[in-house]
Amino acid sequence: MKTSFYSHGKLLITGEYLVLDGIKALAVPTKKGQWLTVQENDTDTITWKSFDENENCWFETNFEIKDQNIKPSLENNVSTSPEVTETLIQILSSARELNPNFLSKQKGYVVETKLEFHREWGLGSSSTLINNIAQWAEVNAFSLLQNSFGGSGYDIACAQYDTPILYKRSGDIPIIKNIEFNPTFRNNLFFVYLNQKQNSKESIQHYQSLSLKDFDKAEVAINEITNSILDCAQIEEFEKLIDAHEEVISKIIKTPTVKSRLFSDYPNSIKSLGGWGGDFILVTGSLSDMEYFKNKEYHTIIPYSKMVLE
């Protein structure tokens, strides 16, 4: 019998970095996510294959389940990436620690993952994988995240929800609230890919290394901006809010805004999302305005309505 699990991708609209310290953040699940299918067999081996959005197998490996441990197979080891293999072993082993019955049968499995988005886009190839494995292992996905990758957990919440959410980290149990966020000006919102994937772990490490002497002021400011964005009805007001958000985070993480660094002559507003320096940015403007980014060799431009699960 084949069992399938699914998780949505994610985008963090407000509260990046500060969400790690319990600030309220606005996050949205994306229309595209990741599948995981599992088929049980009578071997003691896990055969794992990962496919991209074009059905190309970009990773495969074999694991052995022996002596209550998960190890790379010594025979027929076809691993295409030892680093990815070790990451998978870490996640699967963490899942077993949370649920000792997981992978405890004298059984083997054929496992396949299938991404619906480009794995360099930063929409949550790791978080969707963790949430899918958590479903398979019947464990808490937030606990599995903390025991493996770490992070705020907003991406796990997006993986599980079908609507935009307000997310607040609070001990072991996050506070998650379904909300309506469907801006009337959404036709003037676009996501532009910066042609490079941001390393989430490095972004977190950089932020956690900083002295946050102005955190309290930033928390108040970002909370007010998030609340105002939810009530915002005009694109002009929205632009002022995201411009203000950029300035607050820029001062906190001591990093220039993406607009000042790359697009200083763009006439409308630009906001970084998640880890600054890569992945997608949110930009305002018309469809014709997007020619500006194409002329600078940024050709992956996705309208809000085609990206966000509404």
- Indicate the overall shape: globular
Q: How many alpha or pi helices?
A: 10
Query: Under the CATH scheme, which class of the largest domain?
Result: Alpha Beta
What is the multimeric organization of the chains shown? single chain
- How much of the sequence lies in strands comes to 25-35%
What share of the residues lie within helices? Answer: 25-40%
CATH topology of the largest domain: Ribosomal Protein S5, domain 2
Tell me the distance between the termini. 33 Å
Number of domains: 2
Question: Unreliable runs, pLDDT <50, ≥5 residues?
Answer: none
Taking all residues together, what is the mean pLDDT? Answer: 91
Return the string of H and E elements.
EEEEEHEHHHEEEHHHHEEHEH
Structural class: alpha+beta
Cα-based radius of gyration, to the nearest Å: 20 Å
The beta-strand count equals 12
The major β-sheet equals: 8 strands, mixed
Under the CATH scheme, the architecture of the largest domain is: 2-Layer Sandwich
